């Protein structure tokens, strides 16, 4: 009986990767995940359209979308990589406050692809989020800079800029600019 109980617990632990990750989360830093979750709900219930421009190595594509929850989850997936509330990031960032900005900067002796995350707010309302993500592996280097702007509690626009450089391949530069109107 005890062996069956352990097998069920192990099966639940390994089958629930996303919820298992949530159990290992902390709230030492700005809660970006919760902010994005609430924005998905608010924007999907709004009458706004998502205007998006993507540039990849000089080629440009424009599109307009209805921001439903599944599309927004995909759109915001890249921003979730900037969430610092993971157990392996506890103590890895120094918090610097300057006026209405809070900047979480990676300490020199720590390793994380998120180099910094900066939140500008006024009266408990987020106005702007900036961040830098750099992965430097043996076979590739990947860099992304994000900017998310808010007005009246909603995301108004965002951008992602960066590049990916792989061994034996050309460097790919990309840029995404999107706005809700």
Explain this structure to me?
The chain has 181 residues and is an alpha+beta fold. Helix content is 25%, strand content 45%. It is built from 4 helices and 9 strands. It has helices at 2-15, 17-23, 32-44, 69-80; strands at residues 50-56, 59-65, 93-98, 101-106, 114-122, 125-136, 140-151, 154-166, 172-180. The protein has a 9-stranded antiparallel β-sheet, with helices on one face. Helix 3 (32-44) runs antiparallel to helix 4 (69-80).
What is the fold's blueprint, element by element?
Blueprint: H1 2-15, H2 17-23, H3 32-44, E1 50-56, E2 59-65, H4 69-80, E3 93-98, E4 101-106, E5 114-122, E6 125-136, E7 140-151, E8 154-166, E9 172-180
Antiparallel strand pairs: 1-2, 1-9, 3-4, 4-5, 5-6, 6-7, 7-8, 8-9
Strand order of the largest sheet: 2-1-9-8-7-6-5-4-3
Low-confidence stretches: 1-23
Distance between the termini: 59 Å
State the helicity in percent bands. Answer: 25-40%
Q: Could you spell the SSE succession in H and E letters?
A: HHHEEHEEEEEEE
Q: Sheet bearing the most strands, described?
A: 9 strands, antiparallel
The fraction of residues in strands falls at: 35-45%
Counting H and I runs of at least 4 residues, what is the number of helices?
4
Structural class: alpha+beta
Mean pLDDT: 86
Q: What integer value in Å does the Rg equal?
A: 19 Å
């Amino acid at each position: 009986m005890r062996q069956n109980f352990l097998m069920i617990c192990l099966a639940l632990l390994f089958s629930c990767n996303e919820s298992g990750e949530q159990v290992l989360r902390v709230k030492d830093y700005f809660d970006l995940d919760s902010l994005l979750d609430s924005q998905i709900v608010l924007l999907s219930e709004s009458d706004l359209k998502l205007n998006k421009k993507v540039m990849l190595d000089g080629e440009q594509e424009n599109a307009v979308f209805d921001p439903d929850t599944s599309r927004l989850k995909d759109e915001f997936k890249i921003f979730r990589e900037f969430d610092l509330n993971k157990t392996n990031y506890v103590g890895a960032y120094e918090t610097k406050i300057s006026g209405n900005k809070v900047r979480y900067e990676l300490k020199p002796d720590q390793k994380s692809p998120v180099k910094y995350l900066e939140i500008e707010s006024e009266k408990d309302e987020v106005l702007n989020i900036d961040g830098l993500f750099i992965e430097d592996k043996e076979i590739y280097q990947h860099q992304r800079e994000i900017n998310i702007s808010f007005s009246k509690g909603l995301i108004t626009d965002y951008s992602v800029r960066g590049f990916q450089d792989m061994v034996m391949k050309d460097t790919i530069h990309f840029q995404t600019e999107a706005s809700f109107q």
